[in-house]
From TrEMBL:
Membrane topology annotation: Peripheral membrane protein
Superkingdom: Bacteria
Subcellular compartments: Golgi apparatus membrane
Keywords (A to Z) from UniProt: Golgi apparatus, Lipid-binding, Membrane
Keyword Secreted attached: no
Name this protein carries in UniProt: GPP34 family phosphoprotein
Keyword Membrane among record annotations: yes
């Protein structure tokens, strides 16, 4: 099954039985936005010029979540990754992607109430094989297998939001760092991914402390 990096990240970021996130939801939301930017970069739609993201190819990808972000960047002046993460991060994207995974049979959609008043929705896994395959691919790379670009991006994002230690406690820290900061297929892609990962770490920290990044 083909899923996006953002969807892979969501599967790893949530408990497979309860559907609850392993980290605070705001950190998940920032990381998911970073994953969307990374996906568009690997697809050749975005690039970075003087630390600011531009649309290299505004042609739609056919994925609604990716194309919404791509269109926003294509219609704007170049901005830094931290600016885009601040402007493009919101819970609706997380819920949309979770619901999409449920519609594809990967997750279940379960409704309930808290204190008998407030409605809640959780997305435990229906088909755990999808997430386990993602874990296997990441685990193999952290054990020494050669990484591809997508796995490297996922490892970098997990490290940026501090999920790597929780999900892969036995992995050597130097190996995680090596994969996360490894050489990409080209300098431009490497610079873009590095900027995204730095922005995820910064924006996650700011969001956790309820600090709003300054705009330009």
């Amino acid at each position: 099954m083909d899923i996006t990096i953002a969807e892979e990240l969501l599967l790893l970021a949530h408990d497979e039985e309860t559907g609850r996130p392993h980290i605070r939801e705001v950190a998940v939301d920032v990381s998911v936005t970073g994953a969307v930017l990374a996906e568009l970069t690997l697809a050749g739609r975005l690039h970075i010029v003087e630390d600011r993201f531009e649309a290299l190819d505004p042609t739609p990808t056919g994925d609604e979540e990716l194309d919404g972000v791509l269109a926003a960047i294509a219609e704007s002046q170049p901005r830094e990754a931290t600016w885009w993460l601040d402007r493009l991060t919101y819970p609706k994207r997380r819920w949309s992607l979770l619901k999409r995974l449920a519609e594809r049979g990967v997750l279940s959609e379960e409704h309930g109430r808290v204190l008998g008043l407030f409605r809640t929705t959780q997305y435990p896994e229906r088909d755990p094989s999808v997430e386990r395959e993602v874990r296997r691919r990441v685990g193999d790379v952290l054990d020494g297998a050669a990484p591809d670009e997508r796995v490297s991006v996922l490892v970098a994002l997990l490290r940026a939001c501090d999920l790597d230690r929780m999900l892969f406690p036995g992995a050597r820290r130097d190996r995680v760092k090596e994969v996360a900061e490894g050489q990409w297929s080209g300098t431009a892609v490497a610079e873009s991914i590095a900027a995204i990962n730095t922005a995820v770490r910064i924006n996650t920290s700011l969001a956790m402390h309820n600090i709003i990044p300054a705009g330009d």
